[in-house]
Amino acid sequence: MWGFSKTFVKPTMQVTIVADEDVDLMEINAMTNVTLTFEGDNGLNYMMTGCEPQEPFSMTDAGEITGTFHGMKAEKV
């Protein structure tokens, strides 16, 4: 039988967050089923739903929190 098949690939969003007194690395790592929005400098905006950290986020020596979220659906808004 010949046919067409698709494999679901979760959308991802790589982020860098400036660490501040009101930004908690542990809270970010505990996030589940959140909605993220991205507002690009080019005027394009995206929303990703059902997000959680792909792997635990980490903090650099420069005070930046980096990591990647993965979600269930991404769409242009």
Automatic annotation (TrEMBL):
Pfam families: Tail_tube. InterPro entries: Phage_Mu_GpM_tail_tub. It comes from the Bacteria. This is Phage tail tube protein.
